[in-house]
């Protein structure tokens, strides 16, 4: 059942928005305030879709008043209301907010909301392609504002999703580029070995064991410390196993690495794809 007070506020807001008189027109400012109050009442009643819809109406009033900043804030609030049960509406509201923010040059703020769009597409809408595009755009806007760390964070998401979609060339390029840029940065240097590992796994998934082996040598030149890492030895072992089509050795290498450095779902998925390729190669030989 709808919240009675919220409905009363909504009705009053509608009257303000549509009022016509001899000496005055619609009172959009008062209507916007009433729509916002109605939204808050709906939120108290845990009627989040209705709250979001009221916030959208508040945004419309602000736009009629030419107050794009207020409209953007209302749209962001609407997206928060929609986020739990209605992710598509949340994305639509955020997309409108981003459009208003970019129009006035607020690209860093727009990038943050574009990143939220990407998360909704990835986690709630299960649309990795749209999520990847949203992360890419957020990265470009962050980069334009010299927010390199934030831009790289979004690009890493692009790379991860690209690999899931089997666009290994794109994923490899991003992982390697960010790793190369982090070699001499004390804040990111510790992550470089993981980015090199992910890039190498992408190369092996292409499949391209020759390219992976050559890439390892380049990684060692870029970061001499990489040669002594568990990640480097792991990939070297996998390359050898793949060249011999040795399924048991491959499985043993993966299990041994996982005991010390637990593999996440992303790496596990790629390793399973690589393992499948070894099986297929063995079948071809027979």
Short summary:
One of its GO terms (molecular function) is soluble NSF attachment protein activity. The protein is mainly alpha-helical. The chain has helices spanning 4-18, 28-44, 48-64, 68-82, 87-103, 107-124, 128-144, 148-164, 168-182, 192-205, 209-222, 230-244, 247-260, 265-285.
Task: Give a written overview of the molecule.
- Its main location: membrane.
- This is Vesicular-fusion protein S17.
- The structure is a single chain.
- The protein has helices spanning 4-18, 28-44, 48-64, 68-82, 87-103, 107-124, 128-144, 148-164, 168-182, 192-205, 209-222, 230-244, 247-260, 265-285.
- It has 286 residues and is mainly alpha-helical.
- It folds into three domains: 1-104, Serine Threonine Protein Phosphatase 5, Tetratricopeptide repeat (Alpha Horseshoe), CATH 1.25.40.10; 110-165, no CATH class; 169-286, Serine Threonine Protein Phosphatase 5, Tetratricopeptide repeat, CATH 1.25.40.
């Amino acid at each position: 059942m709808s919240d009675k007070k919220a409905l009363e506020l909504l009705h009053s807001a509608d009257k303000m928005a549509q009022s016509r008189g001899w000496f005055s027109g619609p009172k959009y400012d008062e209507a916007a305030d009433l729509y916002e109050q109605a939204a808050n009442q709906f939120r108290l009643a845990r009627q989040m879709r209705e709250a979001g819809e009221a916030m959208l109406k508040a945004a419309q009033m602000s736009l009629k008043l030419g107050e794009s900043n207020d409209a953007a804030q209302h749209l962001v609030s609407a997206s928060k209301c929609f986020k739990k049960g209605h992710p598509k509406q949340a994305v639509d509201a955020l997309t409108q907010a981003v459009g208003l923010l970019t129009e006035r040059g607020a690209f860093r703020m727009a990038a943050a909301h574009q990143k939220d769009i990407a998360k909704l597409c990835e986690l709630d809408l299960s649309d990795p392609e749209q999520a990847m595009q949203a992360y890419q755009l957020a990265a470009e806007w962050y980069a334009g504002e010299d927010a390199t760390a934030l831009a790289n964070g979004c690009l890493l998401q692009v790379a991860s999703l690209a690999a899931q979609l089997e666009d290994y060339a794109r994923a490899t390029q991003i992982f390697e580029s960010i790793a190369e840029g982090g070699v001499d940065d004390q804040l990111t240097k510790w992550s470089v070995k993981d980015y090199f590992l992910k890039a190498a796994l992408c190369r092996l998934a292409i499949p391209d064991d020759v390219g992976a082996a050559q890439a390892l040598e380049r990684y060692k030149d870029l970061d001499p410390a990489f040669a002594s890492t568990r990640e480097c030895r792991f990939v070297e072992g996998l390359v050898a196993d793949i060249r011999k089509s040795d399924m048991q050795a491959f499985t043993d290498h993966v299990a041994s690495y996982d005991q010390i450095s637990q593999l996440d779902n992303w790496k596990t998925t790629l390793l399973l794809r690589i393992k499948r390729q070894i099986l297929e190669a063995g079948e071809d030989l027979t």
